[in-house]
Design brief:
mainly beta; elongated
């Protein structure tokens, strides 16, 4: 019988065996490229089936009642695809194929039995073998040409149900017995089901300039992958210059360590429409370092220094100038991340009228690195921690207006028809984030407009001593609501570093520790706090009502080689009620290791005089700041129609370098500024 998984942690995850009970149509299609094994005994596109056990002579034309037994310490070498009704592999027994070929076992149309070698084998643990055990049913031992994919110093032996290149489906590199139901041609596949409970088996791999459409596929993989920086074990991969992969109506449901659903790589254009993508965590191999590694050849858990946990992200966007777009779709990961750009440069990630979620209470909506551009129009975010982790990007959150979507359809070559464009409703973006909307670890911009609604459980904008910029236009109804009353926190990085290791397969381990600085910052003689600098973090707010505080707690003075950093804020036609100030920020613990990973970014602020952390505020035309507590600034500019007020029944006063000074509209002030409410 087919081995089953008694998983209880993910009751909402459809298993391979559940799907086997569903009726699946097996329709005819042109050229008979791949015969689906739903009821048929074996595919016919490969060589005639042959069974051979170690120590036996090679037979021909194996019959349907063939049983294969591989004894302990025996090796069965197969040179062509082989069928049987029962298979026994005793402990120590091996089924092998010649060099340049790969072996995959399917039982009743489900890829199964594949096991990855240990991570510590010196080769990345990429070799696969068929696990010892007894299998019965419709058994196909598929011998296919190898598909070796190199990433960094490792070569991963891909195996996939359907391999597509510029000429269409390559039968010799495919595993047709994993394709159940539906139709498959050189340009598209419709209604197919792909199931796997083995490890590191891929579904559809489109490469080399091929163009392919998957319509209504069902893919359910349960078992670990190995590397989501190349897509080893992913449901679908689109890779290579000129490659276009379209998924329409897909239902992908994976469980496993880095068992990613969708990979876009190497300048490909991947378009996902009307689809549901769900990925849930698996069980991390015992040999993986307890603290994890940032060595991307081996990294199979999210670095805990991001303040989150998890071992699978639903998608990843890689390579140079690669594009991935999600339209009218639902994308969720249990933890880690739903949409990721990692290991790429100048890529474009787009989501239109889609839901982006973490189902396990931790994680991010999207990750952005490598000068990526990200568009989110009419989307709903329901994420554990962050809507965005920002490592250098341009991100936009807005409405899915007809003009905006049409422009992206053209610029990104999405191929949406006029009817599809007409059917997409105009929606605003809604962001519900458990902790933060954005966390910046590198310079980059975020724009928020339209009717976007931002709701965070804690601080809205979290910037780790980099030139993060946010522009919010509330003229069409955009709102910002902070759960802890802090709208913007500029602070020193509290991200521990990786530690270089030797004598191990991976080059580093994430065993660093963050230690809270003690004492007081030293004033830098080279840093200017009273005028804007190119390295400032900046916030620009137009036509919006804001309630909450803005803090800059960067030490500078040479701390972490940073002489200083300013927070520059501009308000036009807006009201802001809260404290805007330099501050001293403290964690609740003095050191942070993996055990305390949830303490990352968790600080409290005490307003304090500016040292190297300038705060520059411009109140533009029609803006009012209601000061709710003592605020320390280094520069203040008021337009002639701007005002500074205190809450009802109180007064606000200003001192400049210790001298009481009248607050006058149309004037500017620099120096040690203190606004006090009494």
């Amino acid at each position: 019988m087919l081995p089953t998984d008694n998983r209880t942690d993910h009751e909402d995850t459809t298993s391979a065996t559940d799907l086997l009970d569903r009726p699946i149509a097996n329709r005819a299609r042109p050229r008979a490229l791949i015969i689906a094994v739903a009821a048929a005994f074996a595919p016919t596109l490969l060589a005639p089936a042959t069974a051979q056990a170690a120590g036996r002579k090679k037979g021909k034309g194996a019959k349907a009642d063939t049983c294969i037994t591989v004894g302990s310490d025996e090796t069965l070498t197969l040179t062509e695809t082989t069928t049987a009704t029962c298979l026994t592999i005793e402990e120590g027994g091996t089924i092998a194929v010649p060099d340049g070929y790969s072996l995959s076992l399917t039982v009743n149309g489900v890829e199964t039995g594949s096991e990855l070698a240990a991570l510590t084998d010196g080769n990345g643990g990429v070799a696969t073998a068929i696990a010892a055990g007894t299998y019965s049913g419709t058994i196909v031992l598929n011998v296919a040409e190898a598909t070796d994919v190199t990433y960094s110093t490792l070569t991963f032996p891909f195996r996939q149900a359907v391999y597509v290149d510029a000429d269409g489906v390559d039968e010799s590199k495919s595993v047709p017995s994993d394709v159940m139901g539906g139709t498959v041609t050189d340009s598209e596949a419709s209604g197919i089901t792909l199931l796997s409970n083995g490890e590191a088996f891929n579904g559809v791999y489109v490469a080399g300039g091929g163009s392919y459409t998957l319509t209504d596929p069902t893919i359910a993989f349960d078992g670990n992958g190995r590397c989501d920086f190349v897509g080893y074990g992913a449901s679908v991969v689109g890779t290579g210059s000129g490659t276009t992969l379209v998924l329409d109506g897909a239902n992908i449901n994976n469980v496993g360590v880095v068992r990613t659903a969708v990979i876009a790589d190497a300048t490909a254009n991947v378009i996902v429409k009307n689809s549901t993508i769900k990925c849930a965590d698996g069980v991390v191999p015992d040999e993986y370092p307890a603290a994890g590694t940032g060595d991307t050849r081996y990294m199979i858990t999210v670095p805990w220094m991001l303040g989150i946990s998890g071992n699978v992200r639903a998608t990843n966007l890689l390579g140079a100038s690669t594009k991935a777009t999600y339209i009218n779709s639902s994308i969720s990961s249990e933890k880690w991340g739903a949409l990721s750009v990692d290991g790429g440069s100048y890529c474009t990630l787009t989501a239109i009228n889609s839901t982006i979620a973490n189902t396990g209470g931790e994680g991010y909506g999207s990750y952005a690195i490598g000068n990526v551009t990200e568009h989110f129009l009419g989307c709903t975010f329901d994420v554990g921690d962050y809507a965005l982790i920002h490592w250098g990007a341009s991100a936009h959150y807005g409405d899915s207006t007809k003009s905006a979507v049409s422009a992206l359809n053209t610029s990104l070559s999405l191929g949406l028809t006029s009817a599809e464009l007409d059917d997409l409703p105009v929606q605003s973006t809604t962001i519900d984030a458990g902790r933060f909307m954005v966390m910046w670890y590198a310079a980059g911009s975020v724009a928020i407009d339209g009717g976007t609604q931002v709701n965070t459980g804690e601080t809205t904008f979290m910037c780790k001593a980099v030139a993060g910029t946010v522009t919010v236009d509330g003229s069409d109804g955009a709102t910002i609501t902070s759960g802890n009353g802090v709208l913007f926190q500029l602070m020193d990085t509290d991200r521990p570093s990786s530690v270089t290791v030797s004598g191990k397969a991976w080059s580093s381990e994430t065993t660093g520790t963050y230690t809270e600085p003690t004492g007081s910052p030293t004033k830098s003689s080279s840093w200017t706090t009273t005028s804007s600098q190119s390295t400032d973090a900046k916030g620009t707010f137009t036509d919006i009502a804001l309630t909450g505080d803005f803090y800059n707690s960067v030490w500078g003075g040479g701390n972490a080689s940073l002489q200083g950093q300013n927070l520059t804020l501009s308000f036009t036609g807006s009201t802001v009620e809260g404290v805007i100030s330099a501050s001293t920020a403290k964690h609740s613990v003095s050191t942070i290791t993996k055990t305390e990973y949830r303490e990352i970014s968790e600080v409290t602020n005490t307003p304090s005089a500016v040292v190297n952390n300038g705060v520059l505020v411009t109140l533009g035309a029609g803006s009012t700041w209601t000061v709710t507590g003592t605020s320390y600034l280094s520069a203040l500019t008021l337009a002639s129609t701007a005002a500074i007020e205190a809450p009802s029944g109180k007064t606000v006063t200003l001192t400049v370098d210790g001298t009481a000074t009248t607050i006058t509209a149309g004037k500017s002030y620099t120096g040690a500024l203190t606004l006090t409410v009494s």
